[in-house]
């Protein structure tokens, strides 16, 4: 049966979904991109919002604006709550609304995982969305306000102790950003506390931090963190998190502020496809990113379990999601042209991780280095990846301001718990 005007549904406005939509720009098809937010988020720089370096608007761009010249794309602000691969429909939270498709590209991303302890999220927020970053920033700044008015030494020290759980790139970047802020940007602002005595503790359950990097760069990262005052503890599996801190076996670490960066879990949409999943909930896709038994359904980004030629898993990073989105879109085009699909081939553009001010590591296979040059490269690459000229200019100016003044321009405590109104006068 010949498809005259194919219907293509893309779920997710992140790196994978946006790359797929752009690759389908010139296709004679009706494309619907569904996302539960109206913006595309540059997630690798989310921790900079959390540490008051950037505003959320600096690392986001409206999806409709990005795709304004894609006349075949309709953007729908909605949340997907069902997928029926046999009937070829996607259900959204709009009442009695089902969207039929001929091809489906699923790229909804992932969330942080608490390994079965969802109750910990209340005390240790993760860092995956703009709302998460705003909450982390709020808790970070409020900790100093509470310490300023603390009645006893133990309470003051608990408020000046920050714990980051997870020694991957997010945990390392977040823990590396906190000490310079406390030491340089805040200490003149308070009268009863010395913010230079702030403790930052990075807890990693495994034997090393940054396990995806080679050993020589892990050593550089560990040394850099220790030089800026981060207490790095490996083989430290957290067994409890509550409002008073964390527990590692029999040891209790008092802290009023805990941040979570220990793991990810795939979107629950993968379970709706009725195909095998891995332990993290990722879909075990075929070599062309389609799912078994349904060549019209493709999965990209954090939801896809993709194995490289060397047997390693394709990492859940922005370049990989971009490449997977493009591959999925091109395979849709090839099917429409009655051509065989092509397998996904991951091109590793290198790995970068920033570790505080003027410190970073870079891994480009045979070329590996750390220090200021890696940091400058990190700055350049991330500015170039941002969407829109305005965001690039704004971020560059903010970074320059932060670097030369040691200040943070977005020190706003928002969404704080509101106080009850005063009782009316008699």
Q: Could you describe the 3D structure shown?
A:
By secondary structure, this protein is an alpha/beta fold. Among the domains are: 7-36 and 78-112 and 264-336, FAD/NAD(P)-binding domain (3-Layer(bba) Sandwich); 118-262, 3-Layer(bba) Sandwich (FAD/NAD(P)-binding domain). It is 29% helix and 23% strand. The chain has helices at 15-23, 46-50, 63-66, 130-148, 153-159, 169-185, 215-227, 318-336, 372-385, 389-405, and strands at 7-11, 30-35, 39-41, 60-62, 73-77, 80-84, 89-92, 98-100, 103-106, 110-112, 161-165, 199-203, 230-233, 240-242, 245-248, 251-254, 257-260, 264-266, 283-284, 290-291, 294-299, 304-305, 351-354, 360-364, 367-370. The strands form eight sheets. Strands 5-2-1-9-21-20 form a six-stranded mixed sheet, with helices on one face. Strands 13-12-11-17 form a four-stranded parallel sheet. A three-stranded antiparallel sheet has the order 6-7-8, with no helix packed on it. The relative contact order is 0.15. The model is unreliable at 418-426 (pLDDT under 50).
Note the beta-strand portion. 15-25%
The name of the CATH architecture of one domain is 3-Layer(bba) Sandwich
Radius of gyration: 23 Å
CATH class of one domain: Alpha Beta
Low-pLDDT stretches? 418-426
Number of beta strands = 25
> How much helical structure, as a percent, in the residues?
25-40%
Shape: elongated
The largest sheet has its strands arranged as 5-2-1-9-21-20
What CATH calls the topology of one domain is: FAD/NAD(P)-binding domain
- State the secondary-structure class: alpha/beta
- The overall pLDDT, averaged over residues, is 91
Number of helices: 10
Spatial gap, N to C terminus: 80 Å
Let me know the largest β-sheet.
6 strands, mixed
């Amino acid at each position: 049966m010949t498809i005259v005007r194919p219907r293509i549904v893309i779920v997710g406005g992140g790196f994978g979904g946006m790359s797929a939509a752009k690759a389908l720009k010139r296709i004679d098809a009706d494309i619907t991109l569904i996302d539960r937010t109206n913006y595309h988020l540059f997630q690798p720089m989310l921790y900079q919002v959390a540490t008051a370096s950037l505003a959320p608007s600096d690392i986001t761009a409206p999806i409709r604006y990005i795709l304004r010249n894609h006349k075949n794309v309709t953007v729908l602000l909605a949340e997907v709550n069902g997928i029926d691969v046999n009937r070829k429909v996607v259900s959204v939270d709009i009442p009695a609304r089902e969207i039929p498709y001929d091809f489906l590209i699923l790229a909804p991303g992932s969330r942080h995982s608490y390994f079965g302890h969802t109750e910990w999220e209340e005390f240790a927020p993760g860092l995956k969305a703009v709302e998460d970053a705003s909450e982390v920033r709020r808790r970070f700044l409020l900790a100093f306000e509470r310490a300023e008015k603390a009645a006893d030494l133990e309470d003051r020290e608990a408020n000046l102790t920050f714990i980051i759980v997870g020694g991957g790139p997010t945990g390392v970047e977040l823990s590396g950003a906190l000490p310079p802020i406390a030491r340089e940007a805040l200490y003149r602002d308070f009268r009863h506390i010395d913010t230079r005595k702030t403790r930052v503790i990075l807890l990693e359950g495994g034997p090393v931090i940054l396990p995806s990097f080679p050993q020589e760069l892990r050593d550089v990262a560990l040394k850099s963190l220790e030089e800026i005052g981060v207490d790095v503890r490996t083989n430290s599996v957290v067994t409890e998190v509550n409002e008073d801190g964390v527990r590692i076996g029999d040891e209790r670490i008092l802290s009023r502020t805990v941040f979570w960066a220990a793991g990810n879990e795939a979107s629950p949409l993968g379970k709706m496809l009725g195909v095998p999943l891995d332990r993290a909930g990722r879909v075990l896709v075929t070599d062309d990113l389609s799912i078994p038994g349904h060549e019209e359904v493709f999965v990209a980004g954090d939801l896809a379990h993709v194995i490289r030629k060397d047997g390693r898993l394709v990492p859940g990073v922005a370049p990989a999601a971009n490449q997977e989105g493009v591959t999925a879109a091109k395979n849709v085009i090839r099917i429409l042209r009655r051509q065989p699909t092509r397998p996904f081939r991951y091109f590793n553009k290198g790995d970068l991780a920033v570790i505080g001010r003027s410190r970073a590591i870079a891994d480009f296979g045979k070329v590996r280095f750390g220090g200021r040059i890696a940091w400058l490269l990190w700055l350049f690459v991330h500015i170039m990846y941002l969407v829109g000229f305005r965001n690039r200019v704004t971020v560059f100016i903010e970074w320059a301001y932060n670097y030369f003044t040691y200040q943070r321009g977005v020190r706003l405590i928002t969404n704080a718990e509101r106080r009850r109104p005063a009782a009316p006068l008699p």
